[in-house]
Amino acid sequence: MPKPLRLDPDRLFPADPATRAIARALYAQVAGLPIISPHGHTDPAWFASNAPFGNATDLLLVPDHYVFRMLYSHGIAMERLGVGNPAADPRAAWRLFASHYHLFRGTPSRLWLDWVFAEVFGLETRLDAETADRHFDAITAQLATDAFRPRALFDRFGIEVIATTESPLDPLDHHQAIRADNQAGRWQGRVITAYRPDPVIDPDHEDFRANLARFAEVTGQDCFSWSGYLAAHRQRRADFKAVGATSSDHGHPTARTANLSAAEAEALFQRVSSGKVTTGDAELFRAQMLTEMAAMSLDDGLVMQIHPGSFRNHNASVFARLGRDKGADIPTRTDFVHALKPLLDRFGNAPTLSIILFTLDESAYARELAPLAGHYPCLKLGPAWWFHDSPEGMRRFRRATTETAGFYNTVGFNDDTRAFLSIPARHDVARRIDCGVLAELVAEHQLEDWEAAELAHDLTSTLVRQAYKL
Hints:
Layout: H1 17-30, E1 35-37, H2 44-49, H3 56-61, H4 65-73, H5 90-99, H6 108-120, H7 132-143, H8 150-156, E2 159-163, H9 173-184, E3 190-192, H10 198-201, H11 208-219, H12 226-242, E4 247-250, H13 262-273, H14 279-300, E5 303-306, E6 310-311, H15 316-322, E7 330-331, H16 341-347, E8 355-357, H17 364-373, E9 379-381, H18 391-405, H19 423-443, H20 449-467
Parallel strand pairs: 1-2, 2-3, 4-5, 5-8, 8-9
Antiparallel strand pairs: 6-7
Helix pairs in contact: 1-19, 1-20, 6-19, 11-12, 13-14, 14-16, 17-18, 18-19, 19-20
């Protein structure tokens, strides 16, 4: 007998009845606010072409590294799920996923997916081996209808603005097509980009020198000279701003920054661009480029996002077989106090610079990040990120940072996802958790109820608009 799928209206609220009632009232005031998604990895081609999505597997399983990494941890080959293997039978992959859906109990993936099944597709039974085909057919059939095309879902989800993330090598043609449709009145959805220069900044990238050559082709600059390389960045940042970008994004292994002299920086660039890269030079170059990007942000106003502390592609075998972003990125310990000091010595007191810091190292929240953001005008704290984008991760973030940095040195929520259909679910989880945290402060008489109501709105909407200049 299929098991019913039901989303409890009080899910994630505090268990204490009195505190839960406060959280419920706060949530009612923010539940329907528009979604502002200032950082993510959805494909702009979806919104440019508005072509129908494919089947359930291609949309919900293959792109979601949260999902396939869990299945892989139980010995299920990614290729059987369709990851890196377009020849895989999507129905067979979905059946495999469904028969192992119990593995996601207690995880945020379960929260997000159940929301998608119930709220987006109207399914009333839980996913398991028995219901696998029924779910696959129902989802795939709906995806073929106009109501489930990307633009229709964008509007249905109440998304006010969504930012995608592109590299400097991207032609931005999809964003240009979207803006053309906006201007012609064919669609009013706001899709902007963010400047992610990692492929041409990280000397450890396997295609770094080839990327520099491509960078030169795209910009017409000599990207094997230091001055030409910097000019290419400035040019591309201007191109990104022209199609709506308000931020840059930097996914470095560490938060290290440097402040070299012009001569030292030029000599370092010549070493790393020659193809003979040492580990020390690669790290120093990434560090210097964070400072260079901060200098450019002072000129063009792009908000900097720094996402350090992930050991990317940790599984060498999977990387060799399937490439990047296959669920093997692992958090590492991250220093911020010493790492950021060269940049902050140069720019930390600049009133117009805005840097948003993220971490996968929760031990840094109270020890380093909250005190830094609680002092430097240019710093704000990004929300609980990646592995910590979860109910307990969000609660830990608020409890570790609020007393030192306050709420107003944070930037609301961003979903940071490729999984388009899960975006409303992720924002709903964040709103529920924040309302629960605020309800506890009201119940403990640390906040008045009207203050909590203002904060709930600010954490949902105001802070993200301000932080990302939206």
